[in-house]
Design brief:
The chain is elongated, with a radius of gyration of 31 Å. The two termini are about 25 Å apart. It is built from 20 helices and 26 strands. Strands 8, 9, 10, 11, 12, 13 and 14 form a seven-stranded mixed beta sheet that branches. Strands 7-6-15-17 form a four-stranded antiparallel beta sheet. It has a three-stranded parallel beta sheet with strand order 2-4-5. Helix content is about 40%, strand content about 20%. Strand 6 and strand 7 form a beta hairpin. It is α/β, with parallel strands linked by helices.
């Protein structure tokens, strides 16, 4: 062992080690030792197939691979099923930016042509991302890799859609949705964000149709006045009690609209009188529905005002606002404008102001009773979390989960984009048929695709059904869903709902939520801010083990992570410590006999202490407390094993005093330490394990 390299060089080790793991077949649970019978399964959150892995992915892969490696070493039939997401809107936006640079647009392309180009784009990205996952040491079963556009996944999604439609839980209706005029699609709440805008509050006269009196309405959107169907006042507002049931003149197209009483009107805002435009405001839509005001769309799907807007027709909202003020100034209905700072909703990709529009969309009824039951889809998910059938870790996120579920609204699953799973619906007159292929002549295919969250909400059971025949029976419900706390509602809650509805089982037993990676100033990382870090750059410079340890050591699950160069340096120093301590043990085993050795005194004490550390480590890891297990391990390896035990026994070996006991203890403690370290730093530990004398197995399947 005297020819060991002076320093550990990850560049000469990691690729070979990963190839050894792959050739062993142990990523596939079917190839694990026969005694591995108790199943353990994590379904990888599917990575978006539209780019490269970022530091957040590095965290996901590090946590999940650590969990998987630990359970595999516990002797379980361990499956980590990898996959990627077509990520409908996200991917379409990425590809449209590419087209824009090339001077092209999807609106100038045939739908199939665009789809095929994006398909090829995602397939190349998938290959690239898989190589990155391997670079990080991901020990997932590549033979079961799944894509959200695989035919078996699509079949499952279609089957779920039809079942829900037949059960009355999916309906097509005119509801108000978030609409991005630039990308020309409805968006989920997750795909919008709020930004503060310096604007104005405009004060407008609405004259009584039978007198010279007028109401004054304050609004931030005078351009939508042609879409007004009422003016609403609070029934408790004595200033306006005499106005209720009167009619006033809308000041741009001069239509008559009623004054209605509604207790939802904020008496303190503006003048206390609210213009009601049901087609273009979420609050107004609810008021309009309650008072049966009907619909009057004035903004089309291209984001321009239509013929219903009268003199504003053909204009974009910003220009229409200026024209509206000009018209009302001329007809003496414009009073004044005041500076007003407020939040507006914009598309999270292009910052285009969202236009609330009422358009026909497919919705999942989240709060209506399921056929032949008194429970709703929402109730199903709430019940299993309350009963502990799904445990959310950290537990504090349960409160957030219940709050979101209480506020749950029907879920819009339609997207007006080209890239995604087509909705299998056909229209003829007032009839709808749900099926993949055309019902016959005269039927028109729905051009919408599913919201990505609809397909990914079925990911845990769809992936297992899509693979080997017995996978669903063996691994479902899965053991853990590990993901970011920011999608607890948008993804986790929906997976629970869809699984309970479709399979009558929870999709997973535990939910482990990690935080968001931020820079050392606790700002969210992004390329635009210039504070993002490429995980592969760290791997290339320092090795995957350094990246993984920097992610996992001291990381409290559920809390945001302040990531900095200091964490990388600290991890690099620890990996070097592992190598140097291990190297000393290996270099002093040349004459070790491996015969039965009687251990006593301080040597037995060192072994006993090490076994106690192993027990504590496993206790914390079993509770998914990665923070405490990694901290315990770090302190023991560095300060007890390397600084104390090695230094003590080094002298015994040098003096040939109980040398065989000293060698035996060092070897046994090193073996146990490598087993504990392996889930965190798999490459260096597998490499050192390969250098140990009398080894029988790869470390990846050693019992811990």
């Amino acid at each position: 062992m005297n020819d060991l390299p002076k320093a550990y060089d990850h560049k000469n080790v990691e690729e070979n080690i990963y190839q050894t793991w792959e050739k062993s077949g142990f990523f596939n649970p079917d190839n694990l030792p026969k005694e591995n019978q108790e199943p353990f399964c994590i379904i990888m959150p599917p990575t978006n197939a539209n780019g490269s892995l970022h530091l957040g992915h590095g965290l996901v892969m590090s946590i999940e691979d650590a969990l998987i490696r630990y359970q595999r070493m516990q002797g379980k039939k361990t499956l980590w099923l990898p996959g990627s997401d077509h990520a409908g809107f996200e991917t379409q936006v990425v590809y449209e930016k590419k087209l824009e640079k090339e001077g092209r647009s999807r609106f100038q392309m045939e739908r199939d042509e665009f789809y095929n180009e994006v398909w090829n784009f995602t397939q190349e990205n998938k290959k690239h991302m898989n190589e990155q996952i391997k670079r990080l040491g991901g020990s997932c079963d590549w033979s079961r890799e799944t894509f959200t556009l695989d035919s078996k996944i699509i079949d499952t999604v279609y089957d779920t859609f039809k079942k829900m439609y037949d059960d009355g839980l999916i309906y097509r209706g005119n509801r108000i949705v978030n609409y991005c005029p630039k990308h020309r699609t409805a968006l989920s709440d997750l795909e919008t964000k709020y930004i503060e805008e310096d604007s104005f509050l405009y004060y407008i006269k609405y004259q009584d149709s039978e007198s010279e009196e007028f109401l004054i309405v304050a609004t931030t959107r005078p351009e939508t006045i042609p879409g007004d169907l009422a003016v609403a006042v609070n029934t408790k507002d004595k200033r306006y009690s005499a106005w209720i049931n009167k009619k006033v003149i809308e000041p741009i197209t001069k239509r008559l609209v009623p004054v209605i009483g509604d207790d939802s009107v904020d008496i303190e805002f503006g003048t206390g009188a609210l213009k009601v435009t049901p087609n273009h405001d979420a609050t107004d839509f609810e008021i309009g529905k309650k008072h049966n005001l009907g619909f009057l769309p004035i903004i089309d799907l291209d984001g321009k005002l239509n013929e219903n807007a009268g003199p504003l027709a053909g204009l974009k909202p910003k220009i229409a606002r200026e024209e509206a003020i000009k018209i009302m100034t001329e007809n003496n209905t414009f009073i004044k404008q005041e500076p007003y700072k407020h939040n507006i909703s914009v598309c999270y990709k292009c910052n285009t102001p969202i236009e609330p529009l009422v358009i026909p969309q497919w919705f999942v009824a989240m709060t209506s009773p399921i056929k032949n039951t008194k429970k709703s889809l929402r109730d199903l998910a709430v019940d299993v979390v309350k009963k502990g059938e799904v445990k959310i870790i950290p537990k504090r996120f349960e409160k957030i989960f219940f709050h979101w579920m209480k506020e749950l609204k029907d879920w819009n699953i339609s997207r007006q984009i080209y890239w995604g799973i087509p909705i299998p619906a056909w229209f003829k007159d007032n009839e709808i048929k749900i099926q993949k292929d055309s019902p016959g002549e005269g039927w028109t295919k729905d051009t919408d695709v599913f919201d990505t969250w609809f397909s990914s909400s079925q990911w845990p059971f769809a992936t297992l059904l899509a693979n080997q025949e017995n996978d669903f029976k063996t691994y479902f419900p899965t053991s853990i869903m590990e993901t970011g706390y920011d999608i607890l509602f948008f993804w986790v809650a929906r997976m629970i709902i869809m699984s309970l509805y479709k399979t009558n089982q929870v999709p997973f037993k535990q939910v482990l939520l990690h935080g968001i990676i931020r820079d050392k100033q606790h700002q969210k990382m992004s390329k635009s801010k210039g504070n993002s870090i490429d995980p592969l750059t760290i791997c290339n410079q320092h090795g995957a083990d350094v990246l993984r340890w920097s992610m996992l050591y001291g990381t409290k699950i559920g809390d945001d992570i302040a990531f900095s160069e200091d964490k990388i340096i600290g991890a690099r120093n620890f990996v070097n410590k592992i190598w140097n301590a291990s190297k000393f043990v290996l270099m002093n085993l040349n004459d070790f006999s491996f015969e039965e050795i009687k251990i006593s005194g301080k040597y037995q004490k060192y072994l006993d202490e090490n076994m106690e550390i192993v027990k504590k480590y496993k206790k914390y890891f079993d509770k998914l407390d990665i923070t405490t297990s990694s901290t315990l391990l770090y302190k023991y390896f560095w300060f007890t094993f390397a600084d104390k035990i090695i230094e003590d026994l080094k002298q015994d070996i040098k003096d040939n005093k109980n040398k065989d006991q000293a060698q035996y203890v060092l070897l046994k403690i090193l073996e146990n330490n490598l087993r504990m370290l392996h889930p965190f730093t798999p490459f260096i530990t597998e490499y050192i394990w390969s250098l140990l004398p009398n080894r029988k197995n790869l470390l990846i399947i050693e019992k811990l």
